[in-house]
Amino acid sequence: MCQVFNGIGTGIWATTAQLAVMASVSHQEVAVAIALWGMFGSIGSAIGQAIAGALWTNILPTELYKALPEDSKNLTATIYSSFVIQQDYPVGTEIRDAIIVAYADVQRKMVVAGSAFMPVCVLAIVLWKRMDVRKMEKEKTQSKGTIW
User: Fold this and answer.
1) Residue 87 is part of which domain span?
2) Contact at 8 Å (CB) between 104 and 112?
3) Is residue 108 part of a domain?
4) Could you tell me if residue 26 is inside a domain?
5) What global pTM score does this model have?
6) Domain count of the chain?
7) How far is Cα of residue 59 from the mean position of the Cα atoms in its chain?
8) 91 with 99: CB under 8 angstroms?
9) Residue 93 carries which DSSP code?
10) Digitized pLDDT (tens) for each residue of the chain, 148 residues in all
11) Are residues 17 and 48 in the same domain?
């Protein structure tokens, strides 16, 4: 469900952000404005991926070690290092259940960390300049000369 909400939100806000950027600059500046928008989006994405990677590599091995049965704790590094090995354990076994518990804990913490940034995102959207694009079209402020 998180992926569905993320996809819907990205689809809506990415498009409206591009429209807001294009509406706030002249026709000649659209390419530069969209490039800057993309650059800052990539920087934000890189920061988010760095945070997710840090959570993943620092929390998953610890949680996996805690969740594994006592006789299997020595397999923590092997299980952590390979998704194929993780899938080799049948569903319902103690080791597979431990893997699921560890993944669930990390995913929960990643959702909490991502949700902590939502007030910043909402604030940025609230601060967008309100522009009536219909009036801009009537005034023909974006183009001059003969329009085909």
Assistant:
1) 73-128
2) no
3) yes
4) yes
5) 0.70
6) 2
7) 19
8) no
9) S
10) 878 887 888 888 788 888 888 888 888 888 999 999 899 989 988 998 999 999 999 999 999 999 999 999 999 999 999 999 999 999 999 999 999 999 999 999 998 988 898 898 889 878 877 777 677 666 655 555 555 5
11) yes
Backbone region of residue 112 per phi and psi (left: phi > 0; alpha: psi in -120 to 50; beta: other values): alpha
- Which tokens in the block code for residue 44? 């934000």
**What is the number of helices (H) and of strands (E) in the chain?**
7, 0
Give per-residue burial for 5-38: e unless 16+ CB within 10 Å, then b: eeeeeeeeeeeeebebbbbeeeeeebeebeeebe
In single-letter form, the type of residue at position 46 comes to A
Contacts of residue 11, defined as CB under 8 A and 6 or more positions apart, other chains included, come to none
- Same domain, yes or no: 78 and 122: yes
My answer on whether 80 and 118 are in the same domain is yes
